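Q: What would this complex look like in 3D?
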Amino acid sequence: MNRLFIRSQLQRFLEEDVGRGDITTEAVCGEETVKARVVAKEKGILAGLPFVQELFLMLGDVCVRPKVGEGSEFKEGDVLIELEGRADVILTAERLTLNMLQSLSGIATKTREFVRALEGTKVKLLDTRKTTPGYRFFEKYAVRIGGGSNHRFALYDMVLIKDNHKRVAGSLEEAVRRVKEKVGPAYKIEVEVESLEELEKALDLSVDIVMLDNFTPEEVKEAVKIAKGKVEIEVSGKVTLENIREYATEGVDYISSGSVIYASSWIDLSLRVL
Amino acid sequence: MNRLFIRSQLQRFLEEDVGRGDITTEAVCGEETVKARVVAKEKGILAGLPFVQELFLMLGDVCVRPKVGEGSEFKEGDVLIELEGRADVILTAERLTLNMLQSLSGIATKTREFVRALEGTKVKLLDTRKTTPGYRFFEKYAVRIGGGSNHRFALYDMVLIKDNHKRVAGSLEEAVRRVKEKVGPAYKIEVEVESLEELEKALDLSVDIVMLDNFTPEEVKEAVKIAKGKVEIEVSGKVTLENIREYATEGVDYISSGSVIYASSWIDLSLRVL
Amino acid sequence: MNRLFIRSQLQRFLEEDVGRGDITTEAVCGEETVKARVVAKEKGILAGLPFVQELFLMLGDVCVRPKVGEGSEFKEGDVLIELEGRADVILTAERLTLNMLQSLSGIATKTREFVRALEGTKVKLLDTRKTTPGYRFFEKYAVRIGGGSNHRFALYDMVLIKDNHKRVAGSLEEAVRRVKEKVGPAYKIEVEVESLEELEKALDLSVDIVMLDNFTPEEVKEAVKIAKGKVEIEVSGKVTLENIREYATEGVDYISSGSVIYASSWIDLSLRVL
Amino acid sequence: MNRLFIRSQLQRFLEEDVGRGDITTEAVCGEETVKARVVAKEKGILAGLPFVQELFLMLGDVCVRPKVGEGSEFKEGDVLIELEGRADVILTAERLTLNMLQSLSGIATKTREFVRALEGTKVKLLDTRKTTPGYRFFEKYAVRIGGGSNHRFALYDMVLIKDNHKRVAGSLEEAVRRVKEKVGPAYKIEVEVESLEELEKALDLSVDIVMLDNFTPEEVKEAVKIAKGKVEIEVSGKVTLENIREYATEGVDYISSGSVIYASSWIDLSLRVL
Amino acid sequence: MNRLFIRSQLQRFLEEDVGRGDITTEAVCGEETVKARVVAKEKGILAGLPFVQELFLMLGDVCVRPKVGEGSEFKEGDVLIELEGRADVILTAERLTLNMLQSLSGIATKTREFVRALEGTKVKLLDTRKTTPGYRFFEKYAVRIGGGSNHRFALYDMVLIKDNHKRVAGSLEEAVRRVKEKVGPAYKIEVEVESLEELEKALDLSVDIVMLDNFTPEEVKEAVKIAKGKVEIEVSGKVTLENIREYATEGVDYISSGSVIYASSWIDLSLRVL
Amino acid sequence: MNRLFIRSQLQRFLEEDVGRGDITTEAVCGEETVKARVVAKEKGILAGLPFVQELFLMLGDVCVRPKVGEGSEFKEGDVLIELEGRADVILTAERLTLNMLQSLSGIATKTREFVRALEGTKVKLLDTRKTTPGYRFFEKYAVRIGGGSNHRFALYDMVLIKDNHKRVAGSLEEAVRRVKEKVGPAYKIEVEVESLEELEKALDLSVDIVMLDNFTPEEVKEAVKIAKGKVEIEVSGKVTLENIREYATEGVDYISSGSVIYASSWIDLSLRVL
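A: Here is my prediction, written as structure tokens for the whole assembly.
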């Protein structure tokens, strides 16, 4: 990861929460040094550690000692991180530290459940662009820590022709034709199809990936037969932890689910000065 | 709200999702104009409309016509917004539009449930600083739309002496003394107490608000009796939709719950070009 | 104070004065190291030292040794700071160093005079928002160093209902009502009153502070009697070093004066390479 | 002036004073429109009008009608500007509007006094780099409005060899030699001299301007004779409104005085909603 | 293209060339309006028009009338653009306008020559990341206007395994293995090969594109035979206008050449006020 | 040079090329350390070394050892820089390192040729404002390394009255008059003249420099006679390496040529991991 990029994001987060200063901590703390611990109040998968380490490097005067590895499972009561150093720095950064660890561990934990549900298949779990505005880099990182893969990051790094594009262009074929005329070879082209008929059309257009949107598990099986391995297949929409295995048919390459990000739950953690 | 502030935030969100350009839409769309609709796929409370309006004003060439008012209830199938204008602008802004509306309506919807559970009492529902890094302004706005009130925005606009501050200062009394010596009169002072004994100490310190942290409903009732209206009372921790009414004892001024933000669910919406 | 915030401010100041480079110093200086001194050419109270230290940390290669403590009195001829290191860094930062120390020491010095005039009373001296655009954080810091307290920092961290608000709302009562309906419990509410009649109305509205605007000392005494300690009292307007003691009646909590910032005089200092 | 540059500065000032929003005004005001006036409470020279106009253009919904021209004299009681439009916009921008007008009119007013004292001579009044960090562009603008001229803006746009440079280089001659070797022809070269002997040396070095630093009026007269018009002469240091005329000897081109900026007094103005 | 992104780039360019103001134009011009023309002093392909239009929209008060279409050929003496409006705005923006049009038209013109040399083949011309720091977006745009296609924009939007990556990983196979394990399906994978032996290895690794680096035209022909259409083929290095046709063998998909950007010549244009 | 300014520029360049991360290098590299070399593939003059050193200081974990001094000549095959440290940092920064060194060394090399052609004369070579938008600081630095001098940096640091200004003002005399009335003494005044007649007019206006625009060598000789040393003379336009000596008549002070920047060729360099 680009450390300078991460620092500029963290500076923005500090600007939001600390601004010109933490008036409580500046009044209460002098130059005391303390030890503190981040402790788990429920189980989960840890994500966000490198950002916490970079945060305290930026602020200075605090040593960060991870007790659980990034991506590892922890259980209720586990000490995740030990901190030692200036009390004022620790108290001012406490909330941002926890907000990052709780949200990102929540995503990693939920992703891990979906990934486990796919164990034994060749299907990879993908995320989507349904992310919190301004926080996508971190959320997509947490998906990787949970064992998932990232779909495109943004509108500039992959072509994805969706339903609305087809309507504007008039047809799938015309949309693909325009893209191939104008977009260079650096970017993959994926098309969303809504029916088996449309899938058949897409197979003739020599695209990289076809997304089966809101298909039933039975339709997915049918689609795989039709595709005959000529294109990568992504299943999207209506996928839950309960039905994901049904969708993970032989021949499906990817199942994407925005919910591992937007419907994840924060993991309960606390930071305690000893 | 400060419109220039909001524009700078929206520009940052566009930078994240669009960056130097939306390669799919730039290739597929010419100068076509279309109509499109944001449609609800489940019921909820609408929040985020002013940001969507500002977003399209920044991008230009699209007219936004709200069909449901900010803060109003909608049901599955309702058209929330009609858009009319340049197809490329609508398609490029689609995901950010939906990500804002879905997340913020989710928060407003959850907040409304908590607020309804308090109906008939004098207790106000508050949020906390447990928010997504970089998105707090929007999340706290949605709480207000849902009928809640905002607790402090950040570390610079109110004093809140928490457990860790007391440990560094040595005692609650000493922490409050330091704050009163150094912080000017512009900011309210709140202290977190963990027991009825600590509450009694706090009452002698002439602070503005006392937060009862992780008290049972019975302890809260006891605390109210002890406080005798000498200070505002906030209840925090362990509050759920199920038990919130039990906590809403006569004499409690505020119940704060971070979960209306961090544990809210996105409301399912879609944007369809007609 | 938030060190990252301060660094971003100092970087802005350097951008203004140095930009792409100091063409004189780059041509004249090689890698020479020198000693230099900041010397007082008149007496005063020192303010700004932490910013000078941070500035040279950012630029590197210069050691800063304070000879007078922040907030201490110095007299003409005193050496305030010794610098040792790269000549080019010292010469390039000379003007910004002096501009900060001279302006901030000027504010601290003037504030100290006002604070001394209040000695023996319980009245605290406050500043206002009448500050130089872009420099408020530093100016308000210098007030604290001089012994004063800060009024609100900006429009977002406290409610202050002034004359113009009352006119728009139609009445003081209506303005307060609207505020209480919309603003959460995190922020104090202060109202400005222009007469004893208005003060009586304000006392019924349960606000935190009442500002007596442009009252005579006699009116202030009357106001204190009417208020009977039910609310904090701030005196504002027409206050000078000569008459401040008359305003500091028993029962007055704060006297605010923008002039400690906007009418302060720079303290004459010089930086000499030895 | 570069309008985009000015907008970015004004946005920074709004960020300081308004941030995410003006909580009082947002609560008190709806969509009311009002008329308001900026009124002089003492006499002076108006400066800052274009920035106020640009500010309200950025914020929108308010019409600004100047009643006194930029650079014109006004007297106590004069209406300087009439505003008409959204009450919330006017109230939120009130303090920044006044802070700019009061500080800049103060500088213009003081500069005008110095300039008047020079009437009948050929001497031009100059400012210096002794300015408030971050506000220099505006302060130097006000000097021009007052009738003065600007000395260099920053370290990058002119060479000025001062005492400390001479010490590092070993001599005035060596400092000038290094500058001529390395700096291109775009920038003027000025040297500061501390005695008549040094002036004689400087005259041999073919520089553009010589600054007589801390000379008495008599020494200045002597210096003019020695210089014989071979170089432009700037007088600097110890200049006051009282003695400036003594320094304005025939043959002196410029008198510079930082005090028109750093020792100016704010002009008392108020903004009243009608 | 993302208009907000372009505006932020143009603002940066104006900051570089205009900063706080154009001192010549501000002194010389009042509120005069003029007509002006951008005229070609040599032939070429026009590129950069949309940026000039956006620039004058940002600055205001000038109407831009293109006389030659973006991407069209022009000859010496042709009027490319007519401008009408405020003289000061036109003069201040003159240099940036010309610097953009001259550099970008130079790239488009050179690209067109390369593209013409490939006419009749199926080979597409690509650019590289050998671009001027900070100006890539514009340079790559000009390549498209000239008829070329863009290779990846940056290190974040495509995988390209180069020689140095292979050395760190130990082998091409290992490098590809690591990439496939860690990088999601959104990004294409290209590998650079230095010999026919390495090409054969690459064919087994199921990558999207193989770059033949510094191959002779004969080796390229051999490579095409070996590849048998199983992978896209890019030829890179040592390609000039003279030899490009020899490299454009049947079976080659892309020829990349950084020189259309970094070795292009500015087209001579002038802007004349009438 | 202002190190903080340079860092902010380099951060912008990294943002362009690396953004949120180098997906290839992050996947391929672990914590390996390597040695690498920047090697010349053709001869030239080295420029850009300080920026490469600052870049790796910002990124950390890599030691930079220059083998050829800034401004020195090198020949094909020379090792210019040795790098040792983290493989991922080196690979991610490779392209930016080379893009800076290749472009800047190209400018320094071309400038050196022009400067050599002037050897034995007193004429100094100058650059112009015909530079790549956003990269001027670096390009003008490279001119100095090549032995040239810089003309003004931007529109704010010198007055240059060009043809278009004269047209707006009505005459050269009027344009100069307006400038002298409004611009302070800090900035030099240069005027562009198009004929010997205009030169004669300019000589009466007491400006600092006259630019002879598009004169033939013979006209330049005539101009020098007319000027009689009363003003500095700059020759501009139509100057090439072939004819520059003809223009370098005794009495000419400067010859300016934008082509040392905009028509320079990148020097071919490569970075190889050992």
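A: To summarize the key features: The CA atoms of residues 123 and 200 of chain A lie 22 Å apart. Chain A has two domains: 3-113+265-273, 116-262.
Q: Very helpful, thank you.
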